[in-house]
Design a protein that fits this description.
about 180 residues, Aminopeptidase, two-stranded antiparallel ribbon, 8 strands, globular, binds zinc ion
Length: about 180
C-alpha cells in the first residue's frame, strides 16, 4: 500500500500572531497541536509534511506552493477561533465554499466528531468560507478551528500541553479515518 501523505499547516507564525490574548498567541497553539499530530501520524505510518515547524511567518502563496509541490492526500490547516462573546465555545471544521463536495463534507464532519469525542468539546459542525489557501490547494483541504481563545476555559485548555495532546489524538484518529474513506471511495 502506498504511504499516505498529509500536509499539516499550523496557522500564522512569526510576526503574524493570529488571535492574541496576552500572553498567549494563536500561532503558538496551532504549532503545538500540529507538532503532536505530526508525531502521532508518523507513528501510524503516515508521511507528514509541515508548512512550518517553527515560529516563522509564511505567506498564503508559500503555503499553496509548498502544498501543491507535494502531491498530498490531505491538507489540514489548524487555527483557533475568537469572538466578542466570551460564552461561545467549541470546535469547527471549515472548507472552501467554491469546492465544497457534500461527500467530503460528510467525511470531514466525522473528523471533527473524533476530535470532539476525545476532548469532550462541543462540535459546531462543518462550515464553508472563501479561503485563498483552501481554494488553491489541489489536495482535499480543510481548516480546523480547534477552540475559542475568547472563551476563558477553552483558552486555558488550548495552552495546556495535556489538552493539546488530546486534540492531537482526536485529530490523528480523524485524519486516519479520512484517509481510509478516501481509499475506499
Ligand atoms: Zn488563525
Amino acid at each position: 500500500m502506498v504511504r499516505p501523505r498529509v500536509i499539516l499547516d499550523p496557522g500564522h507564525g512569526g510576526w503574524e500572531n493570529g488571535f492574541v490574548v496576552e500572553p498567549f498567541a494563536e500561532k503558538d497553539v496551532n504549532l503545538a497541536v500540529c507538532l503532536q499530530v505530526r508525531d502521532l501520524l508518523e507513528a501510524d505510518g503516515v508521511r507528514v509534511l509541515m508548512t512550518r515547524e517553527e515560529d516563522r511567518e509564511l505567506s498564503a502563496l508559500r503555503r499553496i506552493e509548498f502544498a501543491n509541490a507535494q502531491q498530498a492526500d490531505l491538507f489540514v490547516s489548524w487555527h483557533c477561533d475568537f469572538l466578542e462573546d466570551p460564552g461561545v465555545r467549541g470546535l469547527s471544521v471549515w472548507v472552501d465554499s467554491r469546492c465544497a463536495d457534500p461527500w467530503q463534507m460528510m467525511i470531514f464532519e466525522q473528523l471533527g466528531e473524533r476530535i470532539a469525542d476525545v476532548t469532550q468539546q462541543a462540535f459546531l459542525g462543518v462550515f464553508q468560507l472563501r479561503d485563498k489557501v483552501l481554494h488553491a490547494v489541489e489536495a482535499p483541504a480543510l481548516l480546523i478551528k480547534g477552540s475559542f481563545l475568547s472563551h476563558p476555559e477553552e483558552l486555558a485548555d488550548s495552552v495546556n500541553p495535556h489538552y493539546q495532546k488530546l486534540q492531537a489524538q482526536g485529530a490523528t484518529e480523524g485524519i486516519l479515518y479520512v484517509l481510509k474513506e478516501w481509499q475506499r471511495r
